[in-house]
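Give me structure tokens for this 522-residue protein.
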Amino acid sequence: MNWRVPLGILIVLGVVGLTTTLLNINRTDAETRTVQLGVQHATSPSARQIDLATVTAYERNQFSKELRQRLNKPRRSIDLSAFFADTCEVSQLQWEQFVEWSSRQPGFDDTVENDWLQSTSSGHRIAGRLTSPASGINFKGASAYCTAAGGRLPFAEEFEAMASSDSSNLYPWGDEFNSEAWPFNSAERNSSQACGSHEFASTSNGIHDLANNVMEWGQGPMYAESLEFRPSIHGAPAARRSHRALYALNAAWLQAEPTLKSHHLGFRCVYGKHPLVLPWRRRLQDVAQVPAGEYEIGLPEESRIPLFLANMPQVRGVKLRDLIQTDTSDHEELTVDRCEVSRSEYAKFLSDPFVKLGMFSNENQPAEIDFTPLDWIEQIEDDALPVYGVNWWAADAYARWSGGRLPTVEEWRQVAAGSDGFTYPWGMRYDSEAAQTGDDASSRLRSCGSSRDDTTAAGVVDLGGNLSEWTRSLSAQDSRLAMWVQGGNWLLPGTDTAKSLFGRAVPLTHRSNSIGFRVVYD
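Here you go.
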């Protein structure tokens, strides 16, 4: 077919095309940022080992709610006073002696329910050894024992300090995981071994079985963020055969209800001064001193993947390896708009004759699609604000027109999380005032950069709030055709929606006053 276009139209289209090219150059120079894609893997062997073990657990669909809580432990420094700690977990014999002694004390009432004195291990004595750890004891019972012994249960920070010692080890014995402390297939046998059965698993100052044998009660964090009291549990659960290298980490503790009883949960005591003779025994306890000082607790700063996953919202279809840098020497980069596309920029797109001729439309676009946004007359009155009410087809066409494309869902998430794997574009913790979200009833859409802290380390703005954004990734969650929309917006509460990985599937023709977009350039 021989196409003939009038010279006047060619001249007009040529001028428009030139104008568009100049617009692209100006926007690229002034309003884009080059971002290094992917959360960085740790380079040190020990921290990288944790990263890889976490990825494996996720890919096997075994990154449970429990692991999320255990591994959500960012690195921090704390100052602790010196204390003494039992070198062994309290044994079944010691517990039964305590129970007998308690029942003889003045004021003891044996007519009431004394559930805290009842151990689910008493009577059957796991493995037939009184030297094995006492277990099946709730928090109240463990606390009562330690109080009577002249001590208390350790705080979570103290437990980490006595396990990591002054070397900040990942495990009580060092930085490399060793599975020899769990020699049996039976969980009961692994949690009922005599104290110190595995010499390598002890700390440098002689505290035994902090990661293996039974798990242990703690008092929870010293500076709890919540007023609700929930004690902590430390050590690897004997019943978890998979991913023990993660569960056994000194920092991998969790909080639980104080009424919990388990055959795999016991305790030990700590003391402010060298303890006296136990009231039910005629000799001193075996203790080791944990010196005063500054301790590094939590996971290594370099190990970003566990925190990245622990704080990931519950969204399906996240391809983890697509979000992580695989080669530390060759980082992939992407140029991305600093801001969401504004109304003034979108107006230039709408007025381009090429656009009206369908030159930038997606080849699969239905015939009835209209590129005009919702409330366009009202929107254009304040053309500095980002454009909203644009369907996916229009966003895709604009991106083509501007010389770029929409980001894939993985690219969007990589830009938002940054190389540090931040939970939110600005950091690890949520701040209701950081981004333009629906936390505030007076919240409204604002111009680029108006939010206090909604900026990534690379300088990309408004990924956590203001408008949610279209991507070019098709959702495979159900039978209807939908695309991933990423990020929070000015209408939604931000605690979850402002997270770097938060997204949802939206039909391609949907238009909303809370969805906009930005462009990336190859």
